[in-house]
Amino acid sequence: RCVIVATTPNLFPLHVVEWVRLGYNVPILIKFGVYAPRVHPNYKGRVSLTRGASLLVDRLTLEDEGWFECRILLLDSKTDEFRNGTWTFLSITAPPVFIKKPPTFVEVLLGDSLTLSCGAHGNPRPTVVWHKDESPIEKHEKIKVLNGTLSLASVTRNISGVYKCHVSNSEGNLTHSLQLQVKGPPIIIISPEDTTLNMTQDAVLQCQADAYPSNLTYEWLKQGQSVYHIESLKSRVKILVDGTLLIPNLIPEDAGNYTCTPTNGILTPPSASAHLKVKHPARVGRMPRETYLPAGMEGVIVCPVQADPPVLYVNWTKDGNNLNLDNLPGWLVNAEGSVFIATSNDNAVGMYTCTAYNSYGTMGKSESTQVLLQDPPSLRVPPQPEYLQEVGRQLIIPCEANGDPNPNITWSKIGPTPRSPYTVLANGSLLLQPLSKDHHGGWECLATNRVATVSAGTVVMVLGTSPHIVSSVSVTTEMNQANVSWVPGFDGGYTQKFTVWVKHASRGKHEWASLPVPTSKNYLLVTGLLAGTDYQFSVLPQNRLGSGPFSEIVSVRTQAVSTLPMLDPPTFLSANQTGQGVLLQWSPPEAPTSPLTGYVLQARVYRISDIIFSQDSSYDLRLMSRSNKLLSEPSEAVNVSTIGECLLCFRVVLLYIQAFVRPILRSPRRNFFNFGSNIHFDSRMN
């Protein structure tokens, strides 16, 4: 309110009314006389004067909250001063109103980030709380909420669900709901299982998946090839809508590994596999029309058996008659059902068939194969046993062969394939140009035709290189030392020496220590090691051209410090005085770790200065088990008193002790003796 106190009786109002708002550069309303007021654009049509100079604001919004002041300029005053009112704060309360909210349906790709913003204004300021499936978001560790914004760095499938943004203050509350769906590849919920069926049965391999989007298609592969591209399957196989693979009327060729792959076009689809086993009578696959055997060499007439369950036996015929191996020395039917011939000769020539059997029976005999005898390939120009050549030069190793048909010549390096190239010439020779260090080693020439394969080997020694890696590194350890030995590699044509590298296994790579090896030695005794500690060893060869490669690292552990076995003391020690002296009685230790060789008796005496038994004295006695030099802890002590006793009797006891040594050691469980048994005395004064 703003009240004007009249200063003149004039009817015409001689004043200007201004309403100003803090933060605005110009008044929000100016009224002069009877003229229409000038109103700020933000308040157009919403403010007016009432009851004189009071301000009336219609259709309040939260933005109207603030500080207001009424100013009056009296025109009939001699001064131009405004009469200011008191600053008044207009406070507006309002229920929450959303100013931003996510869509009601949100899709996000698996693995992507997610941000959902929700905000509202109102007075008091509304609080924003997110819920997922009726549970507060704060209970979900991976989802973060800050200032009403929900965020997730990497979306997973389990965040799908119904989300609610709830805003509230003292004036009211609002809730906005949304459905969140995660787009991703399918998840297989029913995987195919390994299946065993008989021939002619129908196979049903299940495969079901769940996915969003749910536009699922299923693909089945056998041995990596689509079932619709396999000649024996494509006309019979069916893939049902739910992903099930149906193979009716099974045949032996249907056996194999089948893989189901469901896809919806999102990311990488999963897959699941199962093995289908088809049991059937044994049968023989396609036999070659002709089988060639090498004259004078081993030969095999193959019977390509297919059987599940496994084949039990195979019958052969030659020229229409059963093949009797008893009349053919060096002939036998091997485990695969094929005929093995130790030395092929004219007896092998003929027409052969085979018939395989298993527990299901047989599907009949094979087609015939004509066995022919031919000479095997022969090496006309074989390679020499060894070649020495300088690195960088050219080396040609011949290998020429005769045969009918002409044999194919191939070369291979024994061991790792060399990185450096090599060439097989038209005449079968091996060309190494330029000769490299990794050409060093054994090579084999193979001459192959339809009859047989013959081979010849050679060794290439490349001179003028750094030494080759050592082999067969062996490390034997003791407590504080290790003996390292190895087999030297080729020296590259120069005298080589070796260095043994060693480090504590738990230390870094930079803490290897090198130990030189005396010339011409291929072993080294490494001393100064810690007992019971893990070490690593490697051997490095060197010659005048440089170092070769390190050997493989050998990890070993030194022997731990040996500990003496524990020996238990005797138990249940007791002392009884008799007319003849003192009778000691005890039980030996049970299951000693080493054989007992005796006992040690300790005595402690009170109130005398002599260690000999004396009258009117008191003694504590205890025993220790003995095994050679090993002694146990003492047993519990027993007390013996000579107060009022005969001193001579106790001296007799000391003599009596030595008379019962061996019988007591032979006693199996409890020992009784009068101060005897190979006893060593340890008397101490108190």
UniProtKB/TrEMBL annotation:
Keywords: Disulfide bond, Immunoglobulin domain, Repeat. Residues 1-72, 96-181, 186-279, 281-372, 377-455 form the Ig-like domain. GO terms for biological process: cardiac muscle cell development; cell-cell adhesion; heart morphogenesis. Residues 466-561 form the Fibronectin type-III domain. InterPro entries: FN3_dom, FN3_sf, Ig-like_dom, Ig-like_dom_sf, Ig-like_fold, Ig_I-set, Ig_sub, Ig_sub2. The keyword GTP-binding does not apply. PROSITE patterns: FN3, IG_LIKE. Pfam families: fn3 (PF00041), I-set (PF07679), Ig_3 (PF13927). This is Immunoglobulin superfamily, member 9b.
